[in-house]
Amino acid sequence: MKIEIRHLSRIEGHAHLVIDQAQGKLRSCRLEIAETPRFFESLLKGRHFSDVAPIMARICGVCSNAHTLVSLAATEQAFGITISTQTLQLRRLLACGEILQSHILHLYFLAIPDYLGVSSILPLAKTHRDLVTRALRLKQLANSICQAVGGRSVHPVTPCVGGFFVLPQASTLQALRRQLVAALPDLEETVDLFGGLPIPDFDRETEYLCLRPEEGYPLFGDILASSDGVSAKVADYARTIEEYLVPHSTAKFARLSRDSYMVGPLARVKNSFEKLSPMARRVAAAIQLDPATVNPFCNLAARLVEVIHCVEQAIHLIDAVLLPGLRTETLQVTPRAGTGAAAIEAPRGTLFHSYGYDAAGCIESADCIIPTAQNLGNLEADLKAMIPTLLHLPQDQLTLRLEMLVRAYDPCLSCATHLLTVKFV
Amino acid sequence: MDRALAVAEEGSFVATWRGISRAEVEGMVRALAAAFEVAGVQEQRGRLTLDLLDDPADLILEFPPHVHSPKKFLFPNGEKLFRFRLGGRVLLEPEKAAVPRVIFGIHPCDLHAIRVLDDCLFEGEADSAYQSKRGATILVGVDCLPDEHCFCTSMGTDRVASGFDLFLHRMEGGYLMQTGSPRGEALLARHAPLVAARSSEPPLPLQVKQCQTTLPVPVEALAPLLGGVYDHPIWQETGERCLGCGACTLLCPSCYCFSVHDRLDLNLEGGERLRTWDSCQFDQFTKVAGGGAFRADQADRQRHRIFRKFKYLWEKHQRTACVGCGRCRRECLAGIGPTGLLKSLFAERVLPEPRVIPGAEYQPQLAEIVSVTRLTATEKFFRLRLPQPVTFAPGTFMEVSVFGLGEAPLTLASAAGVKGHLELVVRAAGNLTKALHRLRPGDTVGIRGPFGSGFPVEEMSGRDILLVAGGMGLIVLRSLLLTILGRRRDFGRVVLLYGARNVASLLFRDDLLAWHRSGLLDCRFAVHETGGDWPLPRGDVSQLLRDLDLAPQRTVAAVSGPPSMYRSTTPLLLRLGIAEDRIFLNLERHMKCGLGKCGKCQINDICVCQCGPIFPYSRVKHLREAIER
Amino acid sequence: MKPRLGFFDFTGCEGCQLTVLNLEHAFLELLDLVELVEFRELLSERGGPLDIACIEGSIGRTEEIERLREIRVRSKVLVALGACADSGGINALAAFRDPGDLNREVYGRDQPSRRILPPRPLSAYVAVDYRIPGCPIDGREFLSVLQALLVGRPPELPSYSLCVECKLAELPCTFERGIVCLGPVTRAGCDAFCLRGGDRCRGCRGLIDNPRSGPYYRILTENGLSEAEILREFRTFNVPGQEGQ
Questions:
Q1: What angle separates helix A170-182 from helix A129-150, to the nearest 10 degrees?
Q2: How many of the other CB atoms lie within 10 Å of CB of B344?
Q3: Does residue A424 carry a pLDDT above 60?
Q4: Could you give the dihedral angle defined by the CA atoms of residues B181, B187, B192 and B195, in that order, rounded to the nearest 10 degrees?
């Protein structure tokens, strides 16, 4: 019997899941990525540095802020530019806003229908009006952060090489802070709702990777570290992360110490548990998420914890920016020939960009590794391990469980780089 | 406030002057904020802008003209006209009354621009949306810091005597506050009582502003001059540089053309009707249903913009609609601006600087008489050589001087176009014309012009032309006829009906007959007194109209003759079926100055030297003075 | 019965659909007016006839052409959503490169050849009834286009250039700082978003109907741009055959 799920819904981008099983045995299982490759790295060639981040942001609408911020950081690295503390704090705020935006979208719009037995959030608009309006309020709050700092929630415009073209208004940030504080009741209800969901049992331990900044929870950083003890400079990411070809796949896979590893919310929470904000740690304890968790479905719980963390973090960042007062900075950008690499913790995991520039500040080479590409090997391993335990289930339950596992990774297939047809056999 | 009221107030109001410090201005702003929305120029994100003030300390009173004009408050883009509800029945909800507002810091040029808006928006049925905002807004003027694009001194808009409520003149250590209306006086008494109680100071001596940019000709002369450069190649050149972005008109403090849209509510149960700024530079501005556009390219549109500012509105309101603020040039990426354009157009005219030589616009240039030919017992034909070529249309006129005797308007008898020579037909009737008859080749006369607006030759092309001349009226029609014959293929049938006293007084008889015989022209004559060497039917020119075989819908009529002739022929032309706006009448009067000033050529409210002498019948039929007497 | 509305995406970033979702409460109100029957990013349901299909992304593979045609057949009105669908968008950058070369550069020499077509807007393969330009689309413009369709009025896009909105926003012209901007030939409607953000216009909303290419070309050359640089400027968001010069 063959099960084919064409154009998996409630994920970013297109993929088909095809499973072939007979007499309780899995014969084959493949996730086909139905995205047209877009060759962003090649298309950048010759482009002026001022156009690089706006072009790279278009890799993905959902993670456009992360792509923008890491692109700027890589360019600044190449040009030897040190950004001001104010710029760094505002960029962190923007990154927090995007993680919130993406996580809330995932929790309320993509994930919850599976747990409430509906096909989408739309029928809930009638049956669970409170839930839907709360979801919209929270998403709007997250978008307001992105709009205030980046100008727009999708494809920001104000961040530029060296800093910001236009700074947010102090009054806007003050209003934002009030909204963040006022969102606490909504967050409590969110924790109650998602903390009580029946997360499927499925444990499989793997290697977990994220950035390890000098202080705080991972967001930006120069060092990447894994649960298996890998520790390397971001500048050396291309040497540390081994991209390899497997006989059954036409796409490159990535590995560190083992055959596959995981990036994203669960990896971050596990590796940096003690760096979470106090409130986020309390929530984690309440929903029994701890560094020992090895269930990939718990990415959902990790997102919930990160939502709390990001709200708290955003309040602190606004205070840190407003306390000394917003200062307009004169941006001095002098391009030079050289290379630069940078990484950011995007909503779905560690995202790397690296560029080589000529003396005029035009791109000679570019590379980019996105979180979903790193997770694919691990998702494959999870599917392979889980399917045999579920073959006794009726087909609709089986496919639902498989879709839920794919969604737990919140794969972002719009980030088309390095992704082509991935075939699992 | 009603405009009539405002005018009455201005008429009787006597300004007062009091010293006021910067701190007192801020105190006044603070006091005003309780009763009004206060707007002023301030810095926002590193740029100057006119916006509502949060903190009086932010108010900037000395600034170059780099900010949007108060049009943004008085005639806002996206102004809501009314709300409506859908669902079965349309229900209108009128908009609320305008917010009382004070605008601080309006430059003299922008105060002039507000008068232009008043002229245009109060004309006829007043625009009530504008009226309510205008009435609820207190205008506080302030001196400006001109930059390299300003040319207010050439436009006479560098200072202003009225049209504001209060005005702050800069002086050492503060300002001198001038009141401009009873309302301004009352405002001062209420919101700055200490200042109001201060004894009045004498007005400041007028400071002379220096603008680097100037106009090449006096602003008063532009309207008639522009009439002659409609077809100048400069428009094409400008059109080829223009991006059509419309920045010039959007930023213009006196441009007010608009478009109207409906915006629906999200639930589709209602909506609002908005008016948004439009621009004559936009593609869709002149588009009509069916896809036509009557100003199809940027050349036409730029010409229209300049003509409207310096000619059309001038002719209508005798006030310059350009106030010399320089915004259009300052913001134009292609560097197109009125002074540059006008300089290219009129640089060849060695005209004196404005106001440097008073009366310059009345000063003629010298032209040499090349030949003099006797046409009839009373008429002579003159050919003049001009100092520079002049562009004119048939139906326009020149002011011709014989020094010592004076000046008289004479319609041109030669073909239209850019000409170095002019032809005139002069009947010896008065002192001046008799003196002209005494002149010989080689003598010089003074000329000014051309002035007025002539026959719309472009509009006439492609049609059958019916020319109706009576006596001397043929002179103007000769100019038109020569223009037509110069491009004969562009026109259908051309019929000339010519009535005169007798055969001997027929002008250009031989030319007309030659053209008639060669088939260029269908010529028919009528005379009051028969006899002489040529048998012609006796009677009035109107008789010739009786058995005419013209297709009226294809025909344009041009009529020129004594007033009595219009009374008899116009009804006949209408009865033939020729449309009122296709019957053009030559309503020459004594156009003494040619500048729309002297009042001698006025027909009711119309000034012939500016709007005529050639008029479509539809334009003048309601004018009692035009034809009836 | 409420009109049936569907959202679809091809090669793109899904930023336009996300912009629709980001309308938040307006999106919820929208659901009272239409029946949202397909939206892969949000719903599991699919299929059936549609009154309005909003399609994001450009077309780059034969499979996509087939899926697009299938949607066209069952949709009364088809709306191109965003720059990729409307003018090729950012994907247009690839229109000037050989797909085989790109493949080798990004995926390595040993990759099997792939059936990849040069990226094209929807209109290259099916009839597009209306379009909402921009990268991403402007949420307000999306709502007004949808409203127009719901009340039976053909939606209209601004026919004037971005300079209008830039001037109304009282922004200084980027050319004053020597920075090239595509505003003078780009369709307005975004309220000069990037210029308000301190950036320049890269033309994501496509050219106006009647771009004054001659005068604009003159201004670009006066600003020292070579022919190749001018073409590169235009090609960021627009496929060939659309640029003014």
A1: 160
A2: 15
A3: no
A4: 20
Q: Tell me if residue A389 falls in helix, strand or coil.
A: helix
Check CB contact under 8 Å for C28 and A37: no
Average pLDDT over residues C111-131: 82
| Structure tokens given for C136 | 């991403």
Compute the distance between CA of residue A59 and CA of residue A418 in angstroms, rounded to an integer: 12
Residue B118 has pLDDT above 80, yes or no: yes
User: From edge to edge, which strands make up the β-sheet containing B417-427?
Assistant: B406-411, B397-402, B444-451, B365-374, B379-392, B417-427
Q: What is the pLDDT of residues B279-289, one digit of tens each?
A: 989 988 777 66
What residue type is assigned to position C47 of the chain?
G
Which positions in chain B have a beta carbon within 8 angstroms of at least one beta carbon in chain C?
47, 49, 67-68, 77, 240-247, 250-251, 263-264, 266-268, 277, 279, 282-284, 298, 331, 333-334
pLDDT tens track for C224-240: 888 888 888 887 777 65
Element (H, E) at C69: helix C62-73
Task: Say whether B245 and C214 touch across the interface (CB within 8 A).
Answer: no
d(CA B581, CA C79): 47
Say what the pLDDT of residue C106 is. 62
Q: What is the DSSP string of B468-508?
A: EEEGGGHHHHHHHHHHHHHTGGGSS-EEEEEEEEEGGG-TT
- Closest listed residue to residue C169, CA positions, set B59, B274, B67, A330: B67
Q: Which residue of A has its CA nearest to C105?
A: A42
User: Chain C partners of A5 at a C-beta cutoff of 8 Å?
Assistant: none
pLDDT, tens only, B551-580: 888 999 999 988 788 888 888 888 888 999
**Is pTM beyond 0.90 here?**
no
Chain A closest CA to C15's CA: distance in Å? 4
Calculate the dihedral angle through the C-alpha atoms of A239, A243, A244, A249, rounding to the nearest 10 degrees.
180
Q: In chain C, which among 181-210 make CB contacts under 8 A with chain B?
A: 184-185, 208-210
Nearest to C164 among B242, B250, B264 (CB): B250
Query: What interhelical angle do B128-135 and B108-122 show, nearest 10?
Result: 140
Q: Are B463 and B555 in contact (CB under 8 A)?
A: yes
DSSP state of C27: H
pLDDT at site B3: 46
Q: Which helix (H) or strand (E) holds A143?
A: helix A129-150
Can you give the length of chain A in residues? 425
Interchain CB distance below 8 Å, B264 and C210: no
Contact assessment for residue A306 and residue A280, using Cβ atoms and an 8 Å cutoff: yes
Mean pLDDT, residues C11-35:
89
Contact criterion met (CB < 8 Å) for B49 and C209: no
Please say if the pLDDT value at position A2 is more than 50. Answer: yes
